[in-house]
Amino acid sequence: MKSKGLKKFLSAVLIIFIFFFIISEIFIYKYLKSYGYGTKELPKTTLVYFQLSKGFTVDEEENYSVFIGRHSYIYDDFLNKKGYYKSDQMGLVYSYREENKSYSSDNIHAFSITASNDWCHWFRVYRIGGGYKIEDF
């Protein structure tokens, strides 16, 4: 008798989990499309949302790259562990310097991260300068 009740309970929990997962995939995909991305980015974005990934690069140019990252995560703690500190902030632009490296001027930085101004619960699109990619960290 107890095993039947436990099976029903576990089945109900599994169904609720699958329902939540499918609904979140639909909403994440909807927002990805509004940013110009699609199903190729969906699995990695889901990992970002469930905090299993720090982010991933979606576009790369010579001096900057664009990546999808966590919505409300500004990467300060993560970059501090990698030897960088936030040296300046102007609105949604965060500039970083390497620790133990001298800079000739106050306005010179190793790289900067610019967060998109668009609000999205599921993820945020960032632009990182200086020729870096999020995977470099």
Structural write-up:
The chain is α+β, with helices and mostly antiparallel strands. The protein has one domain. 34% of the residues lie in helices and 26% in strands. It contains three helices and six strands, in the order H-H-E-E-H-E-E-E-E. Strands 1-2-6-5-4-3 form a six-stranded antiparallel beta sheet. Strand 5 and strand 6 form a beta hairpin. The longest helix has 33 residues. It starts with a helix and ends in an 8-residue tail after the last strand.
Question: In terms of per-residue confidence, which ranges show pLDDT below 50 for 5 or more consecutive residues?
Answer: none
Give the strand tally.
6
The helix content, as a percent range, equals 25-40%
As a percent range, the share of strand residues is 25-35%
Major sheet details: 6 strands, antiparallel
Order of helices and strands: HHEEHEEEE
Figure out the total of helices.
3
Rg, Å, rounded = 19 Å
The N- and C-terminal alpha carbons lie at a distance of 53 Å
Number of domains: 1
Helix vs. strand class? alpha+beta
Mean pLDDT: 85
Spatial sequence of strands, sheet with the most strands? 1-2-6-5-4-3
Coarse morphology? elongated
